[in-house]
Amino acid sequence: RWPYYRNLPPSLKTLGIVMVVIPSFIISAETAGRRFEQEDWQAWEKMPLSEKVIDFTARHQYSVIAGCWAVGIAGAFGAIMRNPCVVQARMWSQGLTIGVVIAAAAVTRTRMYRRDEGDVERPVNRDHSWQERI
Predict the structure, then answer these.
(1) Which of the residues 3, 78, 89, 114 has the least number of beta carbons within 10 Å of its own beta carbon?
(2) What is the pTM of this model?
(3) Mind telling me which residue stretches traverse the membrane in this protein (predicted)?
């Protein structure tokens, strides 16, 4: 429409379009992200403590495993330093680590394959297409 804009080289026309389109995408993405976080926190506040613990461990399962491993190793080191004859402390820390790995697997499985039919947030896995390949 404008003769000045029509006479611009294509690179400047593109720059003008990019300067409008990119910020609008960024603003709408930020707005959608804030809306998602607000809905997520509202759901978090409605959960009982047991669900919060399961949700937190499912989201941060590797951090929980690493933290429990570090605590187990530190506890074993402390027990061995107090009484050098105690060798079983290392075995307890290894057992704790294996227990935490198994618990994390159970939490993940419970969260992924929830049997509650009315749960919209965590749908039941009904994809059995793998059975056709056997």
Answers:
(1) 3
(2) 0.46
(3) 12-29, 62-81, 87-107
